[in-house]
Specification:
Layout lengths: L1 E6 L2 E6 H4 L11 E5 L7 E2 L5 E2 L1 H13 L3 E5 L3 H10 L4 E5 L9 E3 L4 E9 L4 H4 L4 H6 L4 E4 L6 H12 L3 E4 L2 H9 L5 E5 H11 L5 E2 L5 E10 L5 H17 L1 H10 L9
Parallel strand pairs: 3-6, 10-11, 10-12
Antiparallel strand pairs: 1-2, 4-5, 7-14, 8-14, 9-12, 9-13, 9-14
Helix pairs in contact: 2-9, 2-10
Length: about 270
């Protein structure tokens, strides 16, 4: 059984049992969380329920905090930020701490880390390594990168240069990015390290070779809407993150997913 919420003309499936509670005990309301498929962080289960690393981490944090979450599917991250501003969504996961977001959202304590890597086609990493984004730009190599999102200050600064020289192509999904590189639409692809490794293993796509030096490593946070929530909601979730971090519970969840994701790049 599912119910629907209408977001500015967009209907999104939600989990009905969570929607039955207008107020969530320790939080000021049920926390509405947008998501789209982004393996291994969020995937659609056999009954259209959200599964995956971030879904499990957020659910565990909410449980520890005594709050209820309502996952609303089909909302891409840029649209999630728009709805956070409006207060139509309450929480975004897998978020970087970008200063301009502070105007409309509280940023939680980190609940996991993120590694952004450059990947070459299988067997070609030695041709580019040890490459940084500066090296990619100076050598006029063509970069394939996500169409939206924060992937570190270095990429943010160099992206206009890649665009101006016509040396940037963008992808919307990890699978598309891998296919673009394997069909020689560019020299290197930029993306989340574990998402690329996961897709290769899960879908049997020819594996890519990660370059040894990460492009960016950042802590990852929850964003909470300042429009729809109260400061005490952030305090409640932060306290839960701290307890679960100290106990190792979040690390244990992450380890289960990482075991099949291959070796991390050098730090």
């Amino acid at each position: 059984m599912r119910s629907s919420l209408k977001f500015a003309g967009l209907y999104c499936a939600t989990l009905a049992p969570l929607a039955l509670h207008p107020v969530s005990a320790a939080c000021s309301r049920v926390l509405r969380v947008g998501w789209v498929a982004w393996p291994p962080y969020s995937v659609e289960g056999p009954r259209q329920q959200p599964l995956g690393l971030d879904v499990e981490l957020v659910s565990r944090i909410a449980q520890e905090a005594g709050c209820t979450v309502e996952f609303v599917r089909g909302i891409p991250p840029p649209r999630q930020l728009f709805y956070l501003r409006q207060g139509t969504l309450d929480l975004q996961f897998a978020a970087s701490d970008v200063p301009e977001r502070h105007a409309f959202a509280w940023v939680s304590k980190p609940y996991r880390a993120e590694i952004i890597s450059l990947f070459a086609r299988s067997g070609e990493a030695a041709r580019y390594a040890p490459a940084t984004l500066d090296t990619v730009a100076k050598n006029h190599w063509h970069l394939i990168a996500p169409d939206a999102g924060w992937f570190g200050a270095s990429y943010q600064a160099l992206r206009p240069q890649f665009q101006a020289k016509g040396r940037l192509s963008v992808y919307r999904t990890t699978t598309q990015g891998m296919q673009m590189l394997n069909t020689h639409r560019g020299d290197l692809v930029l993306g989340d390290h574990y998402a690329f490794v996961h897709e290769s293993l899960a879908k049997g796509i020819p594996p890519l070779d990660p370059l040894p030096i990460p492009v960016n490593e950042d802590p990852i946070h929850l964003l909470l809407s300042k429009t729809s929530l109260q400061a005490r909601d952030m305090d409640t979730l932060n306290a839960a993150i701290e307890r679960l971090t100290r106990s190792g519970a979040l690390r244990d969840i992450e380890t289960r997913y990482r075991l099949s994701q291959g070796r991390a790049p050098r730090r």
